Amino acid sequence: MIYRLARPLLFLLDPETAHHATIWALKHGLAGGSAAPDDPILSTRVWNLAFSNPLGLAAGFDKDAEVIDAVLGLGFGFVEAGTVTPLPQPGNPKPRLFRLVEDEALINRFGFNSKGLAAFIARLVERRRKGGAAGIVGANVGKNRDAADAAGDYVTGIEAVCGLADYLVCNISSPNTPGLRGLQAKSQIGELIARVLDARRRAALDSARLPPLLTKVGPDLDQQQLRDIAEVALASGIDGLIVGNTTVDRPAALRSPDRSETGGLSGPPLMAKATACLADMYRFTGGKLPIIGCGGVASSADAYAKIRAGASLVQFYSALVFHGPPLVGRIKRELAARLRADGFGSVGEAVGADHR
Fold first, then answer.
1. Beta bridge partners of 313
2. Among 10, 110, 170, 258, which one has the highest count of C-beta atoms within 10 angstroms of its own C-beta?
3. pLDDT value at position 351?
4. Contact (CB, 8 A) for 25 and 67
5. 211-224 burial, b for 16+ CB within 10 Å, e for fewer?
6. What is the DSSP-derived secondary structure letter of residue 33?
7. Are 325 and 31 in contact (CB under 8 A)?
8. What is the CATH number of the domain that holds 76?
9. Other C-beta atoms lying within 10 Å of the C-beta of residue 348
10. CB 61 within 8 A of CB 74
11. SS3 of 240, please?
12. CA pair distance 262, 248, nearest whole angstrom
């Protein structure tokens, strides 16, 4: 009800200003809430971490780790803060975020705008000191635009957040930082993973309990690139993958006036492509690596499709712009019903069901 009243006002603002207003409201307790307890069928264990439900807020919403607890209060099972870069950077010139209202989609070309690691870490430390809300927290790191040693920036980021998050992510698939997606090439991703795994080992508070380390790859990869990444991932010892990110493709069915803006497209037009990429990655890895499915989720049917395609967990963000916080609870209720209707006793039992 509250979001139905707030949405027309937010849509009067330009999208980036509306986003800042939403962060402000969450920080001041005006947009959060106390979600109902999760249906037990939604609980799942991945990397020996207990998730009360498999739905997570994707990176990009809370770039600077400002509203983690407020977002968990909306009913998410986990939240991924970031992407954060070692040094503060303003990102690309504005405007750089566009609502495709007719398509319920977004295009962004932020370019890893970030207040930097120091501010990010300070908030995580303060949250830990106060005792944060129940839920799993991930930290997503990237590289500065002009970094001479791209992998070195990821090493810096992983070392800094290693003891402050439940899982760690290297984002190498944003289309808005020049050269970044080149890190997905077989030779480069192999070197990157080796270096960040070593950084995690050095920085870990407990060598017997290393936080899971994931790499986030995009949906604009061909079959050979997916096979290469799967091969490297399985051989490297990395703990999982996030598939995918935004796309540079522009489906012909897009109707919104801003459909030709440069940047990464997210929302329902991405769903089919990102899920096909996820299914391929699950198949190429033989289901041996947990995958977080991301890209285009706007309903329980979408979340369930990701799980059946091979996702152990599911993330979304863009759909919240159009449907607001009530979407979280609705997806959870309907997802639980879908699992029971198909005879599954848990989320884990449904993971990869389309491949069996």
1. 292
2. 170
3. 98
4. no
5. bbbbbbbbbbbeee
6. -
7. yes
8. 3.20.20.70
9. 15
10. no
11. strand
12. 8
Task: Give the global pTM.
Answer: 0.96
Question: Look-up: residue for tokens 């699950």?
Answer: 282
Amino acid at 212: P
Please identify which of the residues 52, 114, 174, 318 carries the catalytic annotation: 174
- The tokens for 103 are 């398509």
Number of domains within the chain: 1
Higher pLDDT, 99 or 3: 99
pLDDT in tens, 275-288: 999 999 999 999 99
**Strand pairing category for 167-171 and 136-141:** parallel
Helices (H), 61-170: 68-72, 117-130, 150-161
- Over the chain, what is the mean pLDDT? 94
Tokens of 203: 């920085």
Residue ranges making up the domain that contains 325: 2-355
Whether residue 50 has pLDDT greater than 90 = yes
Q: Which residue has the tokens 């285009």?
A: 296
Q: Are the C-beta atoms of residues 25 and 31 closer than 8 Å to each other?
A: yes
The pLDDT, as a whole number, for residue 6 is 84
300 classed as catalytic: no
Residue type, 143: K
Name the more confident of 180 and 173. 173
Q: Is it the case that residue 70 has pLDDT exceeding 60?
A: yes
